[in-house]
């Protein structure tokens, strides 16, 4: 086979996923089993339940991914798995499955970074050009990542408190909307005819960091004020105000960083990249600045194994493999995961 064939496994949070990726760019299969309906009643992911569901489904998901790909296990070149970051119990399930397969098939094991996966999901549908800048927006991460070349990552900005996805979920919970809250806030914001204007957290003048805890508090304060005065709350207007504050800060800082570092491409990725408001406004801003924007399709924005396979292909290309003593690492550094130059 002229191109490598990687079986990738993703179990960092509440999706159990396996995929077969050819040549780092072609999706032969991508099976995802979500646990949203289970965690919805708790208003968020319960780590112990997530781990247990991974154990129950991982074997079936891997078998389905191999079968759907049209290949057999003996055709695989390597096994890739999310090493971190994520929930340690959930990561361990994928790690054990990946090690067992790599040992049984006598093929290399590739330890993969979850955020590198989100960034390289773009390669499954677009051509990545370097230097590039990635705006990572998800339930657990909000970061600006500079990619000077393939497989090298420098974080130039990150959230100091809540990630964007966390802020969306907390605001949705305050408005008594279902979990996960992002899609519901986005829907309300799109419907709004008015906007309750909320503050923007710009931080220091030259900072690329983010902060959303103050915005979340401003939303809660607005809700409480309406309740105390016995006034009806315009939830759509509040959702629009919250979302607009988030988008303004993300777009402004991403465009300023892209200009400062003279990148050729901006990559929007992570679960919140499926947000229609953010995608629309960032696309308009990039078009105005003459900057190419690439965004994975919504199905590749949320956690999935195809993105892990795409990132793992970079490690495969450079011959950087893991040993069977690899440990799940909830705090794995993206910069340290970079290829060795």
Helices and strands in order:
Blueprint lengths: L4 E6 L4 E8 L3 E9 L1 H4 L7 H23 L8 E7 L3 H18 L3 E5 H7 L11 E6 L4 E6 L6 E5 L5 H11 L7 H10 L21 H17 L5 H26 L4 E5 L6 H14 L2 E3 L3 H4 L3 H13 L16 H4 L4
Parallel strand pairs: 1-4, 4-5, 6-9, 9-10
Antiparallel strand pairs: 1-2, 2-3, 6-7, 7-8
Helix pairs in contact: 2-3, 4-11, 5-7, 6-8, 7-8, 8-9
Largest sheet: 5 strands, mixed
Total strands: the figure is: 10
N-to-C span: 27 Å
Uncertain stretches: none
Structural class: alpha/beta
Question: How would the global form be characterised?
Answer: globular
The chain-level mean pLDDT equals 94
SSE topology string: EEEHHEHEHEEEHHHHEHEHHH
Cα-based radius of gyration, to the nearest Å? 20 Å
Strand percentage, roughly? 15-25%
How many helices? The count is 12
Question: Roughly how much helix do the residues carry, as a percent range?
Answer: 40-55%
Strand order of the largest sheet: 3-2-1-4-5
Overall description:
With 341 residues, this protein is an alpha/beta fold. Helix content is 44%, strand content 18%. It is built from twelve helices and ten strands. The strands form two sheets. The protein has a five-stranded mixed sheet, sandwiched between helices. It has a five-stranded mixed sheet with strand order 8-7-6-9-10. A hairpin with a 6-residue loop joins strand 7 and strand 8 (154-158). It is globular, with a radius of gyration of 20 Å. The protein starts with a strand and ends with a helix. The model has no long low-confidence stretch (mean pLDDT 94).
């Amino acid at each position: 086979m002229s191109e490598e064939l990687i079986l990738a496994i993703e179990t960092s949070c509440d999706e159990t996923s396996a995929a077969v990726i050819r040549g780092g760019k072609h999706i032969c299969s991508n099976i995802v089993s979500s646990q949203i309906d289970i965690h919805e009643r708790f208003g968020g992911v319960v780590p112990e339940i997530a781990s247990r569901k991974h154990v129950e489904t991982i074997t079936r998901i891997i078998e389905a991914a191999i079968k759907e790909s049209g290949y057999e296990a003996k055709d695989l070149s390597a096994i890739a798995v999310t090493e971190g970051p994520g929930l340690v119990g959930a990561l361990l399930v994928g790690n054990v499955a990946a090690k067992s397969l790599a040992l049984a098939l006598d093929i290399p094991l590739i330890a993969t970074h979850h955020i590198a996966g989100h960034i390289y999901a773009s390669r499954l549908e677009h051509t990545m050009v370097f230097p590039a800048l990635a705006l990572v927006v998800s339930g657990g991460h909000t970061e600006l990542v500079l990619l000077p070349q393939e497989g090298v990552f420098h974080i130039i900005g990150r959230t100091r408190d809540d990630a964007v996805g966390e802020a969306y979920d907390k605001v949705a919970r305050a408005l008594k909307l279902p979990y996960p809250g992002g899609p519901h806030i986005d829907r309300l914001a799109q419907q709004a005819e008015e906007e309750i204007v909320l503050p923007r957290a710009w931080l220091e003048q030259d900072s690329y960091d983010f902060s959303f805890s103050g915005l979340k508090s401003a939303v809660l304060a607005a809700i409480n004020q309406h309740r105390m005065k016995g006034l009806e709350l315009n939830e759509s207007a509040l959702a629009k105000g919250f979302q607009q504050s988030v988008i303004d800060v993300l777009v402004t800082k991403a465009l300023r960083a892209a200009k400062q570092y003279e990148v050729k491409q901006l990559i929007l990725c992570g679960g919140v990249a499926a947000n229609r408001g953010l995608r629309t406004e960032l696309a308009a801003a990039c078009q105005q600045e003459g900057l190419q924007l690439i965004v994975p399709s919504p199905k590749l924005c949320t956690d999935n194994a195809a993105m892990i396979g795409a990132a793992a292909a970079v490690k495969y290309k450079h011959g950087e493999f893991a040993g069977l003593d690899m440990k799940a690492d909830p705090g794995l550094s993206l910069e340290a995961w970079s290829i060795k130059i």
